[in-house]
Automatic annotation (TrEMBL):
A GO BP annotation: proteolysis
Stretches that traverse the bilayer: none
GO molecular function: serine-type endopeptidase activity
Species annotation: Roseateles aquatilis
Location of the Peptidase S8/S53 domain: 346-660
Protein name as annotated: Peptidase S8/S53 domain-containing protein
Phylogenetic lineage: Bacteria, Pseudomonadati, Pseudomonadota, Betaproteobacteria, Burkholderiales
Length: 882
């Protein structure tokens, strides 16, 4: 780090300004269907509801029919778009609000109605487009009283709409729902059973047909504690009848989670996934039945190499800022000894044989030293580690504890961090960045954020933590349609193979999605680049990318929640070889294959007790660990930038987002972006091409060397603050003389990062959104530079998450009229009225740079102008106070 050009602090201009509204009007309303068609379509459904209520009032048991709408059974409204304030309307009727979820457009055809007529109706109701909008599913838990009120409103809707009347005050959203309704049904077994549960049960029983199967039951989270208790008691009673047992239970009020891990006999598990009328599958209190959430890191081949001499442990300076949640490490290993602080919560040292301590040892090694192939300085801060993986003496395989819910293990580990006694556990006091190189092996992200991701997002916002999360590894094969067999693939030219693999990987991205909790909206999700420092080549193996720094073959691909950008970053994660396999009937598939010759060199356990043992490994876990390492290195630069403050920056509400912004600030697509742009030319729409590239690269490879220190021609500015709904914060940037009256290449890079409260029951999920705009509220900031659309994700995709990274460049003449500077603004908008007064922390990093052809003195000029502006503001404020 060049201490002559440190990061420079930037303060905002005013105390408070109103948000500048985006143009374009209000969000488009959902499509309303013809009134008469709605009456015809749902008259019978509401008639059945009325009869059901009469039966319940008369003491008739109708609960045996799973299609019947009855009290305490989840009710689903599917509509043709999001209805503003619908949750308020149903709560006014007395419904216990559960969740809302957006469904893909294609699911419209699956409605249990007149499918073809429905599509025609949707096409006829608007001249704007014949394509239906996305469906939205609203789920509530009705009582007898609320169902009676719903029925009354349906009758009023029929009558008043026929006469041209309007909805009663406060119930307009409910009447809008009647007009946009596509389906009204109960939460069915089809909804409840996770799509992967049948495959999971089959896989568990393949080798041991009589083994018991661990399955996760996630309940509808009810506000009433007595209702939650009754739901668990009902499950326990059914388990007793079927010979099963509840082995773990976790309730996390903050994210609305209630789940049980149950053990079922093989026959019962098979019956549940094969028969829709199985008693466990029809349990109304259960929202989802899914495979046990568990992480099973893949085993890497051990090497015989010994660790090079790392020298003595240096004097550790600065507080510990990073923690690792992972496997139990070999703490006495030469690479880790004296540098690691292990804190036990669920997993104890006796639970994990030393010979099984692979993953945690490797991750700690990467965080502390990086790839051991390369001689680079070790971190000068201690790193904390909380073990969350156990081992088996009979196998090298590690996993989350077998008889515990993974979310509970992670929750208790995080509680240990945020509730640590600063005197007894000083290493946990300032932990800000948490390495989470773990994912749910059995659960790729699909539409709805997982409880695991919601947990991380809750801790991110509430406890000022930045989670660095691995995107996940996908080892399944994908097809290469251009080759007839494996021999033809292997005989092809390397450049041709590379091009075919790139286009085929993009075509198969739908089956290679990120693994939960990588969809976390507040965290940084990291994909693995096909890069390591191994001096060897693949030998007899085939290198899939001999010329490009693509994501390695196993790295999972995006997007995330509401099509937000995931992974956020790409970072070296080691290389995999490619292996081709013939397909019956012709064709070839390829998959990633480990090679003992390549990968990143890490510390490893030894069967002989050798404490200098190493191995090579690859994957997104590695990439996340190296990003965590970069975050700790950035902390040193932040220390320098905030050196004059009365208190450490680690006590600020903005500490996590400062590191988040700076980690992303040096990222870019680089040359691989140009290569992919050419490879994806078959997608004629440029925005779709940008999205296709972004699913692979995120914002690209990070380079913190451009962030931690500037140069004569480059300066990095850093602002941090808290902002609430409808507020705007202004920042004034001076324009250095070097950027005026010339055509030299100039660039400005801006990165905005924030942490948001979450709304787990809503489609939005992200509670507060921020935008980066000019002083006039637009996305074009000043003359002389513009956004290069071909080298970065679209701004629309960027703004769906909590990280916006934009690069502007240009060489057109910049007139001296702009010499007074320009304004860059951060403004906020809550996604739900309950968060209108909730301030959120953010950080803004800005780098101004000129081409290196001429020494300009840009750094000193901007630094002095910012210092002078700050003094001017302080003088004005002092005068007002007087």
């Amino acid at each position: 780090m060049n201490r002559n050009y440190p990061i420079v602090r930037l303060a905002r201009e005013h105390e408070k300004l109103p948000r500048l509204k985006r143009g374009g009007g209000a969000p488009q309303a959902p499509q309303k269907l013809p009134y008469q068609r709605q009456i015809e379509r749902f008259e019978q459904a509401f008639a059945d509801l009325e009869q059901s209520l009469k039966n319940v009032a008369g003491g008739v048991d109708v609960s045996t029919d799973p299609r019947m709408v009855v009290p305490e059974r989840a009710l689903v409204f599917e509509v043709s778009g999001s209805i503003e304030r619908f949750d308020v309307a149903v709560q006014a009727l007395g419904f216990n609000w559960l969740i809302e979820e957006e469904l893909p457009d294609a699911s419209v055809t699956e409605a249990e109605l007149d499918g073809e007529q429905l599509m025609e109706d949707l096409a006829d109701v608007t001249d704007e487009s014949a394509a239906p909008k996305a469906q939205v599913m609203y789920m509530t838990m009705p009582t007898q009283e609320s169902l009676s009120k719903l029925l009354a409103q349906w009758k009023a809707f029929k009558k008043e709409k026929l006469l041209g009347g309007k909805a009663p005050r406060g119930l307009a959203p409910l009447w809008n729902m009647f007009s946009c309704l596509l389906d009204l049904r109960t939460w069915s077994v089809r909804d409840r059973m996770d799509p992967s549960i049948a495959r999971y049960v089959k896989a568990m029983l393949e080798e041991e047909p009589d083994r018991e199967v661990l399955i996760e039951f996630n309940f509808w989270y009810r506000k009433d504690e007595r209702q939650r208790d009754r739901a668990v008691a009902t499950l326990d009673a059914l388990l007793e009848q079927t010979g099963g047992a509840r082995v773990d239970f976790v309730e996390i009020h903050e994210i609305g989670y209630q789940g049980a891990l149950v053990r079922l006999p093989a026959a019962v598990a098979l019956d549940m996934v094969q028969r829709s009328d199985a008693s466990l599958a029809r349990l109304d209190d259960v929202m989802s039945i899914r495979p046990q959430s568990a992480y099973l890191p893949s085993a890497d081949r051990p090497q015989d190499a010994n660790l090079r001499d790392l020298g003595d442990v240096p004097v550790l300076t600065g507080p510990c800022v990073a923690a690792i949640l992972d496997g139990y490490p070999v703490a006495g290993h030469a690479a880790l000894q004296g540098r690691l602080a292990v804190h036990e919560v669920d997993v104890k040292t006796a639970d994990v044989p030393v010979s099984s301590r692979h993953h945690g040892t490797a991750m700690a090694s990467l965080v502390l030293h990086g790839d051991l192939h390369k001689d680079q300085p070790a971190l000068t801060r201690k790193v904390a580690l909380i073990p969350v993986l156990t081992g088996d003496p009979q196998s090298p395989q590690e996993s989350t504890p077998r008889n515990k819910l993974a979310i509970g293990v992670i929750h208790r580990a995080l509680q240990a961090i945020v509730n640590a006694d600063p005197q007894a556990q000083p290493d946990l006091r300032h932990v800000t960045i948490v390495n989470h190189s773990l994912g749910d092996t059995f659960a790729p992200f699909a539409r709805r954020p997982s409880p695991w991701a919601a947990l991380l997002d809750y801790y991110s916002f509430t406890h000022r933590l930045l989670f660095v999360i691995s995107a996940g590894n996908i080892f399944s094969a994908f097809p290469l349609n251009q080759y007839n067999d494996a021999a033809e693939f292997e005989a092809a030219e390397a450049a041709e193979r590379e091009a075919v693999i790139i286009t085929s990987l993009e075509a198969s991205k739908g089956q290679r999605g990120i693994l939960s909790p990588a969809e976390s909206i507040n965290g940084l999700t990291v994909g693995a680049a096909h890069v390591d420092e191994s001096p060897e080549n693949f030998g007899a193996g085939i290198d899939p990318y001999p010329t490009q720094q693509m994501p390695n073959l196993a790295s999972a691909l995006g997007f995330g929640v509401n099509k937000s950008l995931k992974p956020d970053l790409l970072h070296p994660g080691g290389r995999f070889a490619v292996v081709a396999s013939n397909v019956d009937g012709g064709g070839v598939t390829v998959s990633p294959n480990r090679s003992v010759r390549v990968g990143q060199l890490v510390a490893a356990p030894s069967t002989t007790g050798n404490l200098r043992h190493t191995t090579r490994m690859a994957g997104t876990s590695n990439a996340a660990a190296l990003v965590t390492r970069a975050g700790v290195q950035l902390a040193d630069a932040v220390d320098l930038a905030y050196a004059g403050d009365a208190t450490t920056w680690l006590n600020k509400r903005t500490r996590a987002v400062i590191l988040k912004a700076l980690l992303a600030h040096g990222s870019s697509w680089g040359d691989i972006g140009d290569t992919l742009e050419e490879s994806f030319k078959h997608q004629e729409n440029w925005q779709r091409r940008r999205d296709a590239i972004a699913k692979l690269l995120g914002y690209g490879n990070l380079d913190i060397t451009r962030v931690i220190s500037g140069d004569d021609n480059r300066i990095t500015l850093l602002a941090d603050d808290e902002i609430a709904h409808d507020e705007r914060h202004e920042y004034r940037l001076p324009i250095p003389k070097a950027m005026l009256n010339n055509k030299e290449l100039r660039t400005i890079t801006m990165t905005l990062a924030w942490a948001t409260p979450i709304l787990p029951t809503t489609i939005d999920y992200r509670g507060v959104s921020l935008r980066l705009v000019s002083g006039t509220g637009k996305g074009d900031f000043w003359d002389g530079v513009e956004r290069d659309k071909s080298t970065q994700p679209t701004i629309t995709t960027c703004e769906k998450g909590t990280l916006v990274h934009v690069k502007l460049s240009g060489s057109t003449l910049l007139e001296a009229a702009n010499a007074d500077g320009i304004f860059v603004c951060v403004q906020a908008m809550s996604r739900h009225r309950s968060l209108n007064k909730q301030p959120v922390p953010y950080a803004l990093a800005i780098t101004m740079e000129m081409a290196q052809s001429v020494r300009t003195g840009l750094y000193q000029e901007v630094q002095q102008a910012i210092a002078a502006r700050a003094q001017q503001r302080d003088t004005v404020r002092a005068g007002r106070a007087a």
